Amino acid sequence: MTGSAASVMPRVRVQTGGHVSSRAAEYARERVLALSRDCPGPVPYARVRLSRSADPAEPALAQVNLDVAGTGVRAQAAAPTFTEAVDLVHERLRERLSNLARIARIGRIRPAEPLASARNPELPAEEPRVVRHKTYAPERLAPEEAAFDMELLDYDFFLFRDATTDRDAVVFRDPAGLPRLIRIRPDRDVPAPFPVVGASAPRLTTAEAVERLAATGARFVFFVDAASGRGHVVYRRYDGRYGLISPAR
């Protein structure tokens, strides 16, 4: 890769939450600006979030989102200090940008659809809380494309419309870091590029899905929404609370 495409420095927005020093914020900004010089395309905008996580062993959380010529690239990391967290994010982004450049050379890049977000009213303190609701555009993807987007965006899972079945599905990383697929109804006769979870997605309300997530300790729960019949996901956030992802209407 060369930095010729990124001749214009991006506008870097740094957001902080909790006790984050100005020195940490400036260090993150400098690292992102340095990274943008080697991007495979122009980077008009970058967003950095520095906040405190719920894990006392790794309380510093850094997240960076880049817009690389219309394609979203994301990484996040938790570490004992913000310097370490930012350095981890920097290395992960370098790897993703290298993959992005390689794929761009063979013409397979398509702009990633942004997730629209809406804050939900907080539930009573004694109940599990869904504090963020995201919707995704119902673009049909092959599972391989969804797995690529998951990697590029540094997600643990990715909800999408499976082009093979024309139904909602989730691709995720197993404990070994390998991709696996969850379909609403698994069918051994339908081809898949990686292993498919054998059980069907449960039909639940959002409240029931949150209860299941809290009870099982899983990273996320993929379920069929009882009202809409579409695939939704509730997931654990770094702050210990929960988020919801659903298809855009």
UniProtKB/TrEMBL annotation:
Domain of life: Bacteria
Membrane-spanning ranges: none
Residue intervals of the Sigma 54 modulation/S30EA ribosomal protein C-terminal domain: 126-176, 201-244
Molecular function terms, GO-annotated: ribosomal small subunit binding
Record GO biological process: negative regulation of translational elongation
Matches recorded under Pfam families: Ribosom_S30AE_C (PF16321)
One cellular-component annotation, GO: cytosolic small ribosomal subunit
Coiled-coil annotated residue ranges, if any: none
PANTHER family: 30S RIBOSOMAL PROTEIN (PTHR33231:SF1)
Stated name of the protein: Sigma 54 modulation/S30EA ribosomal protein C-terminal domain-containing protein
